[in-house]
Design goal:
By secondary structure, the chain is an alpha/beta fold. The chain has 27 helices and 31 strands. It is globular. Bound molecules: ligand PGD. Ligand PGD binds next to α17 and β18.
Length: about 750
């Protein structure tokens, strides 16, 4: 078989089948292909593939309704036509007895890179065109906190992260990069929709080679390639805002802040300075004050502030810092610190959010629109901030605050999920189990037997991306990719589009859903959006067949100036989309909401889960539940690259030798990681590359709770979301706060039960 072009969230590649084995080759022009490509070959025929539709026994016997047996019940394999009849009848029942507002179709998740078979787009289009809509979710688990804050203070998330060329700016111009949360290469490998050119490693290395300095501020040393770091400040987790305040105070104390910039480009600085100096609360946020909270020496804080003022300084703030209680604050304060340095909008200076957190952030924007699938119109007004899923299911009718509004949780009878794994991505998974016992019916489309499928009533086997044709495209990536089918679907797996088409047929809405088009006809229609835009600009615009034969199409870059350089050149002509048109160091809008957990200017607010708080007496280790190095989220955890990162098949818990010794733990031991919310097993790796008092356990091990004699209930694979707290980052954004949690760790004898994703 010939090589065929294809793509994934972690990189474009080619594949072919030789002697029944899939071979993968990275894109030839990718300067730094992702090791995650090694996970793909095993995926097609892995034993965890779902081969046939299944319905939960209790649902079949008793009909729809709340049921605490979800997650423990057996499944009955069934024929497609029978299951689709059952499901379409249930959809009709829900809509006629209740309304589309009783269906949660928020269905968050990354699914796979192709833009047509993107499962979320398919489920939304189906629910809109065929049942009148659904309760949706807004924002993301990735950057949901910042995406609500940023429009108040700088501009929309898209403008802030996608309308600049930060990577080339860093590579060519920055003298000092102060990276709060680092610039982790593992995260820079991944981008929703694909990434044909991984540019982060080269940008950092080239900058370093020309003498740029990198200050890493993170409890974990490999959040920046170790050979690139010139200084590592391992601040106590959750204290970045305090460190930034200490830096800001030093600037003011030494008269190093840029008053002219603050006057011309910002609003609300004075109220912030009053807080900084302690005029409003009696606490001066000095370097000494910050040293106490962060554990970074006062001298280091003062010296760094001086270096920042005298260098062309780029301040970067990673997504991880805002995936946390009060996660708005480090983002807002990073922006404020950069504004005080007066370098925003200059080459190699200023503030960048999300650089290194997602691969395509910082690449230049594209000059033409990408292919997308229209999703129809949703007639249901209700929505939730995405991370409030369990609150919604457990508290219908309850009110809560979000971004200045009082909202009410809807009463959900049906949950329809395609392309995501909430039993990976949500916090406090035992609580999510209770939440999933509440609806009448839960439907999941999945290629693999993830934990979410075990908590469903109707499980429909979906194809994987290599089993279908599609188009890969991602904002800020210069190529769209012809994703060609590599293998036939396994078992009875069907594309999400095919499943929804059959359901629409039964609901009498086939024409509205499919518009009479096959998959290949849809791909042509979607491609024409990009082609027409190229044509309108007088640029070469190959027809679909040429694009498909070539395997990819290089897109032109936008010639528009970056958001912040344009603003700097003329703040009137290029007003920001904030209420004042300026950078808002204090926001009257946010202040007007009266949220003590997100006041009107950046502030240090003590979280509950941090080493300086009372809870640390009970659970003295700060667990960092960040993105995994071996896979994307929970995807393909059984793959070769992911398995290489495990210890005895379990997720790897990194522990400082000092903390390990105190607990009698050695490298390679199996441990129970626990707090009062739950527990999981993990395999220990000792590491001096992290701050003592911290433990690091990445997300994404497949949730598999088992009751083991002597140690009780544990997730045997090592999913940290059994430990995390399920609260919004604040009332402003209600974002995911799963990054940091307090735990204790104890050594246990290796249990009889082996770890196994997809048991
Ligand atoms: P994935 O593992 O990518 O996780 O959460 P998300 O749910 O996106 O799940 C995607 C699922 O889609 C997989 O199970 C995959 O098999 C399935 N899939 C793939 N292709 C298809 C398809 O074509 N059709 C169908 N039907 N299914 C498909 C990720 C989320 O987790 C994110 S984005 C972040 S940033 C959060 N990070 C953290 C964190 O830092 N700390 C904690 N504690 N928790 C987090 N959770 C969040």
């Amino acid at each position: 078989m010939e090589w065929r072009s294809h793509s994934s969230h972690w990189g474009a590649f080619s594949a072919r089948v030789v002697n029944d084995r899939i071979e993968i080759a990275p894109h030839p022009q990718d300067p730094a292909p992702s090791p995650l490509l090694d996970n793909l070959a095993a995926s097609a025929r892995h034993s965890s593939r779902i081969l046939k539709p299944m319905v939960r026994k209790g649902w079949l016997e008793n009909g729809p309704g709340p049921d605490s047996r979800r997650g423990k019940d057996e499944f009955v394999p069934m024929e497609w036509p029978v299951v689709l009849d059952l499901l379409s009848d249930e959809l009709k029942r829900i809509v006629s007895k209740h309304s589309p507002a009783a269906i949660f179709g928020g269905s968050y998740g990354w699914s796979s890179a192709g833009r047509f078979h993107h499962a979320q787009s398919q489920v939304h289009r189906f629910l809109n065109t065929s049942v009148g809509g659904y309760v949706r979710s807004v924002n993301t688990y990735s950057n949901g906190t910042a995406s609500v804050l940023l429009p108040h203070v700088l501009g929309t998330l898209e403008e802030v992260t996608r309308k600049n060329s930060a990577l080339s700016d860093l590579r060519d111009h920055a003298e000092l990069v102060v990276a709060f949360g680092g610039l982790p290469i593992r995260n820079g490998m991944v981008s929703g929709g694909g990434n044909s050119r991984h540019l982060l490693p080269d940008a950092i290395a080239t900058a370093r080679a020309r003498g740029a300095e990198f200050v890493l501020i993170s409890p974990i040393r490999d959040d920046l390639p170790p050979e690139m770091e010139t200084q590592w400040l391992a601040a106590r987790p959750a204290t970045d805002t305090a460190l930034m305040l200490g830096l800001a105070y030093t600037l003011v104390e030494q008269g190093l802040h840029d008053r002219a910039f603050l006057d011309r480009y910002c609003t609300g600085y004075q109220a912030f300075e009053d807080y900084l100096r302690g005029r409003t609360d009696g606490v001066a946020k000095s370097a000494a004050w910050a040293a106490e909270i962060t554990g970074i020496a006062e001298h280091d804080i003062r010296t760094l502030a001086g270096r920042m003022a005298e260098s062309r300084t780029m301040i970067t703030v990673s997504y991880s810092l805002q995936r946390s209680e009060h996660g708005e604050q480090p983002v807002w304060m990073g922006l404020t610190l950069a504004a005080m340095l007066g370098q925003i909008g200059l080459d190699g200076g200023g503030f960048y959010f999300g650089l290194g957190s997602i691969g395509n952030v910082g690449k230049p924007p594209l000059g033409v629109p990408l292919p997308t699938l229209p999703q129809g119109t949703n007639t249901v007004a209700e929505y939730i901030p995405v991370a409030r899923l369990a609150d919604m299911l457990l508290g219908p009718g309850e009110t809560y605050q979000y971004n200045g509004k009082t909202l009410t949780y809807p009463n959900i009878r049906m949950v329809y999920w395609a392309g995501g794994n909430p039993f990976h991505h949500h916090q406090n998974l035992r609580r999510l189990e209770q939440a999933f016992s509440r609806p009448d019916t839960i439907v999941v489309h999945e290629p693999f037997l993830t934990a979410t499928t075990r908590f469903a009533d109707i499980v429909l086997p979906a194809t994987i991306t290599m089993e279908r044709n599609d188009i890969g495209a991602s904002a800020n990536d210069p190529n769209i990719i012809a994703m060609k089918k590599i293998i036939d679907p396994i078992g009875e797996a069907r594309d999400d589009f095919a499943i929804f088409s059959e359901l629409a047929q039964r609901l009498g809405t086939a024409e509205a859903f499919t518009e009479g088009r096959s998959v290949d006809e849809w791909l042509r229609v979607m491609y024409s959006r990009t082609r027409d835009a190229l044509d309108a600009k007088g640029l070469p615009a190959p027809d679909f067949d040429t694009f498909w034969d070539d395997g990819e199409l290089a897109l032109p870059l936008s010639q528009a100036p970056g958001l912040l350089s344009a603003f700097r050149s003329d703040p009137q002509a290029h007003r920001l989309k904030t209420p004042s048109g300026l950078i808002e160091i204090s926001s009257e809008t946010v202040a007007g909401f009266n949220y003590s957990d997100c006041p009107g200017h950046p502030s240090w607010i003590e979280p509950t889960e941090w080493l300086g708080g009372a809870r640390a007496a009970q659970f003295p280790l700060q667990l960092i539940a960040n993105q995994p190095p071996g896979r994307l989220h929970s995807q393909l955890d059984f793959g070769d690259n992911s398995q290489r990162t495990k210890v005895s098949g379990r997720e790897r818990l990194r522990l400082h030798p000092v903390d390990a010794e105190r607990r009698g733990i050695a490298d390679g031991d199996t441990v129970r990681v626990f707090n009062d919310r739950g527990a999981c097993l993990a395999g220990v790796v000792l590491s001096t590359g992290q701050r003592p008092g911290t433990a690091q356990l990445p997300t994404g091990a497949w949730y598999d709770p088992q009751d083991l004699s002597e140690i009780g209930r544990v997730c045997i694979n090592g999913n940290p979301n059994v430990l995390t707290q399920d609260i919004g980052s604040s009332r402003l954004s209600q974002g995911c706060s799963g990054q940091l949690v307090l735990v204790e760790v104890e050594k246990i004898a290796a249990p009889d039960i082996a770890a196994d994703p997809g048991r």
